[in-house]
Automatic annotation (TrEMBL):
Keywords: Disulfide bond, Electron transport, Oxidoreductase, Periplasm, Signal, Transport
A single MF term (Gene Ontology): aliphatic amine dehydrogenase activity
Keyword Electron transport: yes
Cellular component annotations (GO), alphabetically ordered: periplasmic space
Source species of the chain: Oharaeibacter diazotrophicus
Cysteines paired by S-S bonds: C173-C189
Listed Pfam families: Me-amine-dh_H (PF06433)
Protein name stated in the entry: Methylamine dehydrogenase heavy chain
InterPro entries: Metamine_DH_Hvc (IPR009451), Quino_amine_DH_bsu (IPR011044), WD40/YVTN_repeat-like_dom_sf (IPR015943)
Family as reported in the entry's similarity comment: Belongs to the aromatic amine dehydrogenase heavy chain family.
Signal peptide, first to last residue: 1-19
Length: 378
């Protein structure tokens, strides 16, 4: 009791003294009209029980710049130039059952504000935030939304006019992979073929063509997270191969298939979600890899990121990483690689070309929700 009394007396003396010495300074709260200038990292923070968001960070230091709030179970897309962002969002009136409303939201990146909302048919796929679920034509004129009812189809949207132009049935085919020019896109199909849908200039027509069997979906399935190359797409497979599919002609064609970990001890194979990122300028593919691969381990998080020279097919470096779920680079300047983890972190790595494009961690920041989709801008 004596100790308590002494402590109380000391506090009674100390508190008035503190009040006399410290001048109260109220915090000033303001509102920026625009985010700070400079290159950005966009992270889609997907939520399944409430509002998701696009978090914006500075590319140089991962300083947090702000949020663009979206609906549930959505995904994101940046228009060419990086000044406009899209989210495909689902709004659920009763969360677990009942009616839903699905929209394509359009945001002004500089002010982080919504500028338009386009009603979609209530068919958009409610999946994890894979990039092929929301894509756009090469010039950004049309936006493509993956649907699942569970029948597969694609909704074509004109974001400038704010209208839905058509729904294209795509039975048995999944993921939207636009061509480098024009308005066509390809899709991976369950029978191992690749289908191509060529849209007319008005976005209201589509002609389908299909390839021969490109991959074996039972023996060596492909990840939906492909990367765009000059003449088509590059798809990693569960079994540790890379499939180069050309899409410039009317019929998609397998150009080449080659292994990435052949002869490497440890049973390494690709894995995670957004598992591939391309330095197009230097022809280097960054690929998330995990050891002791087996049937069903294709979602195991990355223990290493391998830098692969696409010209020589050689592994240039193997960088240990902190169980990354997604990786991304700016295709025009791949001096920085960004990784996302399942424990709510975004991590910045520098890329050293002189060391075989090896990665060095520099800084990290926090994320929320299930963050597995990132875009890095110049």
């Amino acid at each position: 009791m004596k100790r308590v009394a002494v402590l109380a007396a000391a506090m009674a003396v100390a508190v008035p003294a503190l009040a006399e010495d410290a001048e109260f300074k109220p915090e000033t709260v303001g509102l920026k009209e625009t985010i700070d200038p400079g290159p950005n990292v966009f992270v889609y923070q997907q939520e399944w029980k409430g509002a998701g968001s696009i978090a914006v960070y500075g590319k140089d230091d991962l300083a947090f710049k702000g949020l663009m709030t979206s609906g549930s179970m959505g995904t994101m897309l940046l228009a060419p130039g990086g000044k406009t962002a899209y989210t495909q969002s689902t709004y659920m009136k009763r969360i677990t059952w009942g009616d839903i409303e699905q929209v394509l939201q359009v945001f002004d990146v500089a002010t982080l504000t919504p500028v338009k909302e386009i009603a979609l048919p209530p068919k958009a796929a409610m999946t994890l935030g894979y990039a092929p679920m929301l894509q756009q034509s090469a010039d950004g004129k049309y936006v493509y939304v993956q649907n699942a009812t569970p029948a597969a189809s694609v909704t074509v949207v004109d974001p400038v006019a704010g209208t839905v132009l058509q729904e294209i049935p795509t039975p048995g085919c999944w993921g939207v992979y636009p061509t480098g020019e024009g308005y066509a896109f390809s899709m991976l199909c369950g029978d191992g073929s690749v289908s191509r849908f060529a849209l007319g200039a008005d976005g209201k027509t589509a002609e389908k063509t299909g390839s021969e069997k490109v991959f074996d979906p039972d023996a060596d399935a492909l990840f939906v997270s492909g990367v765009k190359v000059s003449d088509g797409w590059l798809f990693p497979s569960f079994g540790g191969n890379l499939y180069h599919v050309a899409d410039g002609a009317a019929v998609p064609k397998l150009v080449e298939k080659f292994p990435v970990a052949e002869g490497v001890e440890g049973g390494w194979a690709p894995g995670s979600y957004g598992l591939a990122a391309l330095d197009a300028k230097n022809g280097v593919l960054f690929l998330s890899m995990h050891p002791e691969a087996k049937e069903g381990s294709h979602k195991d998080l990355a223990k290493e990121v391998w830098a692969i020279d696409l010209a020589t097919r050689k592994v240039l470096s193997r960088s240990p990483v902190e169980e990354l779920a997604t990786i991304a680079v700016d295709g025009a300047d791949a001096s920085v690689l960004v990784g996302l983890t399942e424990d709510y972190r975004v991590i910045r790595y520098t890329v050293d070309p002189k060391a075989g494009y090896a990665l060095t961690k520099t800084v990290e920041n926090k994320t929320t929700g299930f963050s597995m989709l990132a875009t890095v801008t110049p």
